[in-house]
Amino acid sequence: MLRPEEEAFLLSTTGLTDVDALKTLIRSVQAEATEAFPYPCIRRFDFVKLKISRLPYYERLMSLVKSDPNALLLDIGCCFGNDVRKVIADGYPAENIIASDLRPEFWNLGHKLFKSDPGTFPVTFLPGDVLDTTFIGTASPVYGAPCTQRPDLRGLHKLAPLTGHLRAIHASDFFHLFTEANQAAVARALGALLSPARGSMIFGTHVARPNKGLRTEASPPAPGYLGNRMFCHDAQSWTELWDGEVFQKGTVRVEAQVVEQAREVLVVLKPEVTFYQLIWCVTRL
Ligand SMILES: C[S@@+](CC[C@H](N)C(=O)[O-])C[C@H]1O[C@@H](n2cnc3c(N)ncnc32)[C@H](O)[C@@H]1O
């Protein structure tokens, strides 16, 4: 279940020395999280993985914060917060990170797993629904200077005041949770939060298909699992969404590749079908 580097990361962040005690803790928070909502990502233990650091754009994120130490990062659909914990361990200042999720239970379980509290782990967590425009805002992407001051994260309750201020957004295993129309709405809303500064980036990975459409090859939906009702983009449709629909054409570079998903990470899979993942990054020019 754990790669050696993930086990080492968890032991050092939790302060535990006994691997069996760590595994017991992981299984106990997994049970609580499944009770809250049984996402496949919880069942396959994604909350203990260091997936963000395996994305091809990770080094770019770390270079961005080196060149702009005040750069604000949002992890949207952060779940337990394991990805932001990895980013912080690699040098990203915790006070410049915002994590957000519909379900605060997952974030609280992150504290339980990593044995932290808001005092020892001062990342700003904003519970909320990205489909709620009072939370995420209704602004359009910013092209000149943002018309607001950068907000003080300590008083923040919504994402909307961040319009035009985020230098980076990470969104993994997130977009595929929404219908095609809502994926576009969420992309527009997140695009509006991104700073117009050259190099600002939104990146991640989620379920895809070589040709866009419903994932008809999957099993029927089950609790926590969209199955054959899941809408998936392909690399071209994802590129066209960001370059032309969300942002004015030619103002961003979109990198998007569809790759076959490793079978061992799939918990709900018919043996005869291949599943795909989109790995992507949109960078402001
Ligand atoms: C499949 S998990 C992915 C977690 C993590 N990003 C990862 O890559 O492992 C999806 C996360 O998105 C959150 N989520 C689902 N719908 C949401 C919404 N409408 N607004 C905000 N977060 C949402 C879920 O609560 C969950 O933590």
UniProtKB/TrEMBL annotation:
Family, as annotated: Belongs to the class I-like SAM-binding methyltransferase superfamily.
Protein name per Swiss-Prot or TrEMBL: Methyltransferase domain-containing protein
Gene Ontology terms for molecular function: transferase activity
Protein origin, superkingdom: Eukaryota
InterPro entries per record: Meroterpenoid_MTases (IPR051654), SAM-dependent_MTases_sf (IPR029063)
Gene3D superfamilies, A to Z: Vaccinia Virus protein VP39
Pathway(s) per entry: Secondary metabolite biosynthesis
Keywords from the named record: S-adenosyl-L-methionine, Transferase
